[in-house]
């Protein structure tokens, strides 16, 4: 079907600001604070908060909250640093909670 359908996007549940593209999904099996969360290689139109060390199920990580750049809703977090060798692939990646994002152009 020829058309002008753009990339499949995820947007902020609050203000519909576009925050990530489907092609950047690395994993859909993460656990967020309130249910399922997706791991993305990139996020856009977001603000990254202060870094802090957090003990997660997979070990100690330095993480920062990620906010919508428009409405400041907390959408997830960014992995700044992983201390466990097996978790290093998450560094610089973004977690967005499934309950905080909505699909666009699907
Ligand atoms: Zn928003």
Automatic annotation (TrEMBL):
GO terms for molecular function: metal ion binding. Residues 8-105 form the Yippee domain. It holds the Pfam family Yippee-Mis18. InterPro entries: Yippee, Yippee/Mis18/Cereblon, Yippee_fam. Keywords: Metal-binding, Zinc. It comes from the Eukaryota. Belongs to the yippee family. This is Protein yippee-like.
């Amino acid at each position: 079907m020829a058309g002008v359908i753009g990339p499949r996007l995820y947007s902020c549940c609050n203000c519909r600001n576009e925050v990530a593209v489907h092609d950047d999904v690395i994993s859909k099996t993460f656990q967020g604070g309130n249910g399922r969360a997706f791991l993305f290689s990139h996020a856009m139109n977001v603000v990254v908060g202060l870094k802090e060390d957090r003990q997660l199920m997979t070990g100690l990580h330095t993480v920062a909250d990620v906010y919508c750049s428009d409405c400041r809703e907390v959408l997830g977090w960014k992995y700044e640093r992983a201390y466990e060798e097996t978790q290093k692939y998450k560094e610089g990646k973004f977690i967005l909670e499934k309950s905080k994002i909505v699909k666009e152009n699907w």
